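ok so i was messing around last nite and threw this chain in just to see what happens. nothing serious, just curious
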Amino acid sequence: MKIIIEPLDELMEQLRPRLSQAVEPLQVAAALESEGLNDKLARERYGHPDVFSLAEAVYARLIRDEPEPAPIELPVAAWRSLVHGPLYAMPAALLPAVTALIGVRWLMPGLVVTTGIGWVLGSVLSRIAYGLTGRGSPGSAARTLRWGLVAGVVLAGGAATLWDGPMSLVLLAVTQLTFQICSGILLFYRREGLLALLMLPGTGAGLLYVVVGHPLAALAAVTLGVASIGAVACAAILLTRPSRHDGRPRLDGDLGVAALYSGLTAAFLLQAEAAYVVDRPDLALTGAGLVLGMGVLEWQAHRFDSAVRGVIRQVCYPAEFTAQGHRLLVRGLGGSIAALAVLTAVPVAFTQVSLPVVVMAAAHVVLGGAYFMAFLLANQGRLVELCLAQGAALLLHPGAGLLLPESVLGDVLLFLAAALLFLSVLLALMSHGLRDVWHYR
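result:
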């Protein structure tokens, strides 16, 4: 039978929209395989011995037809990611002074409520703002952030009022939520240095109170802390001031899924700690390392994405890409867990170490590893899978815990098991996703 060699023109026109930014033949090979082309069809239709030989020919044409490659956006600077955790944690220096003024009875519940609201609202606002900015609507992004701040303050104040606590609880909730949203706005506009500078007086005063311990020092620290947060709020309002009208915002279709995932994540972590913030602060303190290490997780995620895209330029076959991708994934996960273990061990060392404390600390470290995986999957838009995985962890804790006898050790062990389940599911999803080269184009 005579073999008919078809020209590549039709194939080029079919694949050109998907391969406009291809940087290596491996990406072309992945696209060909997704179109159903195998080695047999490559031989019979195009006269090439296999798909990779055909991909080389297609890529050569792409280079000839488009000699000027599209610029590749550089990853976020490492230091920006690394400082996010410490910047978010700066108001923690004021907690001893605040406790001295209003008491721990109202401090911890207020922090739990506002942290949950701020976590969900901040995640949703950030996603909307980045989406609008990417579509050329920075004015809409700014307005969204500003109105999100207003909504957050109202929600925090309302929640604290329903708690039936003193006015100091309402003020604490509003101040804490204001910092959470406004610091997120400054980080969105890459004003890390400004945020640190504005919070420095309040943070320094809080640390000074820990040394002095005088009631007047507590009052001065809280006053300076409120003033610092007020300055952060003013900076956020100025950054989001109306500049130009760029039309009505068009929101992403997966915004609701992103909000659901943020809510599930906040619920999973906060419900595990809420039971201990008053009676067992040593257990609640084990989560401090996770807060401080969120910037490390973000940096590790950027580092992985950058490295795995570099692999595409170095290998020729999908199996090689998958193998090197797995090694990078293990390295990123190991680095994240090691960093969180160190950050968690520091505050735990100042508590009375017991078996429940060690288990709770391990659970937070494992959960941090899961968050590293979640960053990677979210970058690929796999939000539905993240929701399902987080939902499964919630079914185990607190779900299964409702059927077991009340026990602190039993509860923290179940929380550790739920965190391990969450990490295992995300690791499996991410490992399987490394077979799809198109995720990293």
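not much to say yet. Residues 294-440 form one domain.
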